[in-house]
Amino acid sequence: MTVDLRLEQLYQRVELVKGIGDPRRGKLCIMSFVALLAGEPHSDNPGAASPVIRRFAIPINDRMPASFRQRLKPFAPRIVGTQDRLDALRAGVLAAAVRDEIVPRVLLDFGAVPAGAAWLGGLREVREAARVLLGRLVAGSGANGTFDIPENGTFDVPAFQIEIATATADLLTLGARAAPRLATAAWYWNKAIDLLDRLCDVGGERAEPRIDAVRIAWLEAVVARRERLARHTAIASRALDRLRQLLPLRSDAA
After folding, report:
1. Is 28 helix (H, G, I), strand (E, B) or coil?
2. Residues 36-58: what's their mean pLDDT?
């Protein structure tokens, strides 16, 4: 069986959770899943991953509803090997998305709100985050801690690469949480997934991810044991319920 097919089957048996997770229970966050696939110790800071992707993916993983979070699983093997010195390009992808896609959507969704709305504070936070983030992207100077966008669309300052990744994730999660409708919130979560896809695509044509087959086998064994335990527990529970139903009958007969 190919590694890709084994991974596809494994996605159905592993659960992505908030926090770092516990691989012994088949529960991981997106970045600890990356560490496992790369054959690294259990952590949410794998050396095989792009720092920009990590700083974008962690808050998205932790703040997403569980149903959306599970859609992150196929990105784990794609993140392996992204420590490729292409994070300036990834930061540019995020900057363009903020300017051209996210901020316009924030203004559309939250540009005018009822003065008495209970969630007005949240909306103000979203609008302020959008305003500050867009301002950081289009103006400023390194002397006072801000950075210009180079004309070629890349970001050569590592600190800003990390900052734009974190700020973009924050803006998306703020928008989702402040949204008054589920459909509106879904737009922000789907955009986060879309952007993670784009970040993984950077350098993808030359990436050679080395997925550790030994660790895949170990995780397969872990989830298989847990599945057997769950089945045995369910069987024992049904048997106990049946016994409880029968015992009163025998007592009555006596």
Report:
1. strand
2. 95
Question: What gap in Å lies between CA 70 and CA 4, rounded to an integer?
Answer: 18
**Cα separations in angstroms, 52 against 82, 95, 131, 165, 231:** 10, 12, 22, 6, 41
Could you tell me what percent of the chain has a pLDDT over 90? 42
Bridge partners of residue 15, in order along the sequence: 27
Which residues are CB-contacts of 222 (< 8 A; sequence separation ≥ 6)? 23, 24, 25, 26
pLDDT in tens, 180-238: 889 999 999 999 999 999 999 998 765 556 687 777 787 778 777 776 766 767 777 77
Question: Which whole-number Å values give the CA distances from 101 to 53, 65, 195, 227, 253, in the listed order?
Answer: 19, 22, 11, 42, 74
Q: What are phi and psi of 220, to 5 degrees?
A: -60, -40
CA angle 171/173/66 to nearest 5° reads 160
